[in-house]
Design brief:
This protein is mostly helical and 293 residues long. Helices cover 66% and strands 0% of the residues.
Length: 293
């Protein structure tokens, strides 16, 4: 339901500025004296392999030191390490504990990650109500994957009543942040009329973007053919409808094969060609196309 997160060496430059331009040995001196910023920074450097050889064990050691001093960024990073099993044993329950500590301090990404663990039942008993609660916290702070996930939960009625209007709103917020995974479900809702007729042009633009990113996707080809054919969100253009319908048909989209046969039979976007029409009807039937009378 979401693209995975990453370890956050948050505010490295800011922290480095606070501590001064420190060598690793100087940082270790500060860290050993109990300075949480130095501990966090040292853990991040060991994780990323910056100025030192990459070492997950040392990354976890110093990150946990800072996390135990209630540093929210370090607590988030410890959740990440426990979830990944990097420098520590993989343990979803511990990951959830660390994420929750950070989330309760307002750490927006930790809130989203905690929601994900509740949603998947990893380290916590699966609980859509809790997932929704934490996704809303993160989404309201602008976390793109949380906005996407919240849109999904509203569209499916998970942890809440089904609310397509709310789903559209959250998917739009995620798309505005260039969260690509939200485009398809947003398009689907808008195409189905959940955003009203005024939203059909937006649906068409989304479909164009989806098709640009995945030009051989037969479903996208078929859908854009229908939109051109029916003038849905775009001016009717039978020739373009035929162009895309043929592409989808050649990519084995069964509905497109039948529609293409119709277009050949009735001369829609192409000259009438009964031989081509018969061919595509036969192909669709061989592929077990079903129609309702």
């Amino acid at each position: 339901m979401k693209i995975r997160h990453c370890f956050i060496p948050v505010l490295l430059l800011l922290i480095a500025g606070v501590l001064g331009a420190q060598t690793i040995s100087e940082l270790e001196k500060y860290a050993n004296s109990g300075n949480a910023d130095a501990q966090f920074l040292l853990g991040a450097k060991y994780y990323e392999g910056k100025e030192v050889e990459r070492d997950f064990n040392k990354a976890a050691y110093w990150t946990e030191k800072a996390a135990n001093q209630n540093d929210a960024e370090a607590q988030y990073n410890m959740g990440f390490l426990c979830e990944r099993g990097e420098g520590v044993e993989k343990d979803y329950a511990k990951a959830a504990e660390w994420y929750e500590k950070a989330a309760n301090q307002g750490h927006k990404v930790a809130q989203g990650e905690l929601a994900y663990l509740y949603y998947t039942g990893s380290g916590r008993e699966k609980d859509n109500d809790e997932a929704l609660y934490w996704y809303e916290k993160a989404a309201n702070q602008g976390v793109d994957f949380a906005q996407h996930s919240l849109g999904y939960m509203y569209s499916e009625g998970l942890g809440t009543e089904k609310d397509n209007a709310a789903a559209i709103g959250w998917f739009r917020k995620a798309v505005a942040q260039k969260y690509e995974a939200s485009k398809k479900p947003l398009f689907k809702l808008l195409y189905e009329g959940e955003g009203g007729e005024a939203a059909y042009p937006e649906a068409f633009v989304l479909l164009e973007e989806l098709l640009e990113a995945d030009s051989t996707n037969d479903e996208y080809q078929y859908m854009i053919a229908l939109m051109y054919l029916n003038g849905k969100g775009v001016e009717t253009d039978e020739e373009k409808a035929f162009f895309w319908m043929k592409k989808a048909a050649w990519n084995d989209h069964i509905d497109a094969q039948w529609e293409l046969a119709d277009m050949y039979e009735y001369g829609i976007g192409v000259e009438i060609d009964t031989a081509e029409a018969d061919y595509w009807y036969e192909v669709a039937e061989e592929n077990e196309y079903y129609w309702w009378w």
